[in-house]
């Protein structure tokens, strides 16, 4: 027997619908926000500035070393604290710069070129959509700035459940009023998003891409006309 048709799609947010942005630009923005008179390269040197940018580019992978259970995504306070602790050991990063980097982080998150077109097409096909994100702060300003429209928004710190726990996925299913077998989960993390598969939700993992297109058109092929 063929599986039931997909009538709803759940999307991870960071590195699925939006990219993290250019880390060197993030560092420069943070440097200015912290009131530094020089630029990072001039102050730290080429190699140190490049190393710090590379570290920031993978900040949440580094954060997982000290926070493997993603407790940072349970509250704004924990999210900020884990970030600050993660960058504290980087040469050239003091408390003021770390705070400035944290405040400016969401400003760097821009949607992939295929995000809005794919969401628009899903809506045209009558497919319901939701963002299901492990995050410790409000994504709504980023969502609105990027003109992203979905039927439901499920943020871990608001619902008290962090992926891969089943609770965050079942919360989204209840909001959309769909069954697991009729739903597709789209994310980038085998560890976090595989929690959907454990509930019988078909799951598509799209590894991180650094270009402007993330390959989200594959969702449309899975959903069908």
UniProtKB/TrEMBL annotation:
<dbReference type="InterPro" id="IPR023214">
    <property type="entry name" value="HAD_sf"/>
</dbReference>
<keyword id="KW-0378">Hydrolase</keyword>
<dbReference type="InterPro" id="IPR036412">
    <property type="entry name" value="HAD-like_sf"/>
</dbReference>
<dbReference type="Pfam" id="PF00702">
    <property type="entry name" value="Hydrolase"/>
</dbReference>
<dbReference type="InterPro" id="IPR006439">
    <property type="entry name" value="HAD-SF_hydro_IA"/>
</dbReference>
<protein>
    <submittedName>
        <fullName>HAD family hydrolase</fullName>
    </submittedName>
</protein>
<dbReference type="GO" id="GO:0016787">
    <property type="term" value="F:hydrolase activity"/>
</dbReference>
């Amino acid at each position: 027997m063929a599986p039931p048709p997909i009538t709803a799609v759940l999307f991870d947010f960071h590195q699925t619908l939006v990219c993290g942005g250019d880390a060197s630009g993030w560092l420069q923005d943070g440097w200015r926000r912290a009131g530094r008179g020089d630029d990072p390269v001039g102050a730290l040197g080429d190699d140190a500035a490049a190393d710090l940018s590379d570290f920031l580019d993978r900040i949440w992978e580094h954060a997982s070393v000290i926070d493997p259970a993603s407790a940072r995504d349970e509250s704004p306070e924990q999210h900020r604290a884990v970030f600050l602790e993660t960058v504290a050991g980087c040469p050239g990063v003091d408390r003021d710069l770390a705070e400035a980097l944290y405040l400016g982080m969401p400003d760097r998150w821009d949607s992939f070129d295929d995000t809005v077109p794919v969401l628009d097409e899903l809506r045209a096909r009558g497919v319901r959509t939701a963002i299901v994100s492990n995050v410790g702060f409000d994504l709504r300003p980023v969502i609105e700035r990027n003109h992203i429209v979905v039927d439901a928004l499920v943020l871990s710190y608001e619902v008290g459940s962090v992926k891969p726990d089943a609770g965050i996925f079942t919360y989204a299913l209840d909001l959309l009023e769909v069954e697991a077998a009729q739903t597709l989960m789209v994310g980038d993390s085998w560890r976090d998003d595989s929690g959907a598969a454990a509930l019988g939700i078909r799951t598509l993992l799209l590894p991180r891409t650094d270009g402007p297109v993330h390959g989200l058109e594959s969702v449309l092929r899975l959903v069908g006309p």
